[in-house]
């Protein structure tokens, strides 16, 4: 009986996602918010990138959104940001600007779908003053050593050598671990030989210096602070990940929110942003079994702080192909995404009709509000043969404000990068 009621709710809420009118309506609805969160059900599906790119272009060009913040590292994304804002040499192209995405999983951002978006952003920013250019930033936590490198590089250009010397002293603490996050985590967690104090002191030293920087250097000064924030977040993440509990997840998502809020402050009180992350980050954790494990995420934290100023859009697919690896650091592969499991959210949407759909969730829909449905999540590590383990129990209407369903999807198009670090 409940299954029949769910299908009735889907038929009431779903509309075909294949027309300009429907897309325009979504842009209008999402464009009322300060934070538009665009999810994805995998990190390797082309349509999730292209649909998010199309929505982002319209939110930027029609609604004045100032930047895209993604589930990527600050240093590599900042290189791309410099390119799309036209701050790099004219001879540099988008392919070159993506060359810093050389750590596994490279395909998440070094792909042809991002090249197209980068070229659009660069063209959009042409002839605009700096304060009106749309940016592209990474707010994730994994760039511990790369961010240290960038801080030293930046501070080395300044006349006052005191900050550079302070950074060098702080980073000496990390030298024994030879750029290995797991090695550092074991030492810090088990033996109490961490570098937290040094990193916190450095962050406090660099905090808010962008406010006093020369106009032409404000964003580079902000970058130094965000790199220091990434070092602090990365240190805490690796220090806790060895325990395999909720702490490392929560540190990561709280870090991403803190970095996002710092970017909002930098862009001014009227700034609005578009966030690209996996559904597991943008969909409210309180509407999933994550809450039972004491986990929070970006979507929950932003909703708690900003309420109706947040508009979260989830994504899903019935079947297709995806880029992923069989284990962390394994070669990327094009894998088959099998038909969604029976009675999952994706299977029910397919059963309603094999077409792309957009759903706005009716806050008065008691059926979906009281129903836990399996919702597929594919990570960078994926085993299609273990498909049953890829479903997150979800109250879908409370997790998102809207949902985009692409019935048949294909793998993202990775760029071939020679250097791949894990």
TrEMBL record:
Keyword Transferase applies: yes
Full protein name: Protein-L-isoaspartate O-methyltransferase
Lineage: Bacteria, Bacillati, Bacillota, Bacilli, Bacillales
Gene Ontology terms: biological process: methylation; response to antibiotic
Keyword Oxidoreductase: no
Keyword tags: Methyltransferase, Transferase
GO molecular function: methyltransferase activity
